[in-house]
Amino acid sequence: MTVPLIEVDGVSKAFWIPTVRRETVREHVFGMLQPRRFERLTVLDNVSFELRRGETLGIMGRNGSGKSTLLKIVCGVYPPDRGHVVARASITPILELGVGWNPELDAIDNIFLIGSVMGLLLRDIRASIDEILAFAELEKFANLKLKHYSSGMSSRLAYAVAFKAVRDVLVLDEIFAVGDAGFKARCEERYWQLRAAGRTILIVSHDPRTIAAFCDRALLLDGGRIVAEGRAQQVAERYVSILTTDNRAKMAGVPASA
Asked: How far is 192 from 172, CA to CA, in rounded Å?
């Protein structure tokens, strides 16, 4: 059996959050006179999985299930409280689109900035400028400072750079969630090109159809734990079943099941 490119073993993560929210100026002023209390919120609890060369693994779960935190631990943004992650390949992440851009620079300068961070050589960036701008449909705005871009424009640019910079493993948070139908179609085409080239991909999505269509295997997170793992289609169906049950419970006024 081949050695996995990414190995996540017993990973747990918790954050300390304030028990009392301070929203008004008055609450902040008077709150300074009292010690602030915190409670421990467990986001991930003993999560383990492997990602092997050439496969696409999907991660699903409701809001607050721990998906984004797990991706950030895999990419080295957060350290785990317990457990460990072994990465035996270079990772190209798209986690929070637009993070790292300099709003005072135009698109071309930001492509050089982010492309370099993602591991592209300067000569490769120069040769790819036109292709990246065309992919993002931003040719007319190449010399416009990013502070004047909409969130959608910044997101398209982030995807375009990352798709060009992908090395061994591509990590995507909510793939195909931005842009119009034409941009999504280009993202899908680029995805299949990467798959054909043998790239390894980790996808997080709320959409079970996306997971079923683009992934080989999938994990379902709930309450920070893996509650289902296996073929993407089967796990996607399990996710739909859970959502359907919860929606019916809410309509009936019954607490949703975990």
From this structure: 14
Tokens of 99: 């993070």
Residue 119 lies in domain: 101-164
Determine the Cα–Cα distance for residues 84 and 133; give it in Å rounded to an integer: 38
Q: Do residue 141 and residue 29 come from a single domain?
A: no
- What SS3 state is found at 50? strand
CATH number at residue 39: 3.40.50.300
Q: What sign results for the dihedral spanned by CA atoms 194, 198, 200, 205? A: positive
**How far apart (Å, rounded) are the C-alpha atoms in residues 131 and 200?**
23
Q: What is the pLDDT of residues 208-258, one digit of tens each?
A: 998 999 999 999 999 999 999 999 999 999 999 888 877 766 667 755 554
Describe the chain by its helix, strand, coil percentages, rounded to 5.
40, 25, 35
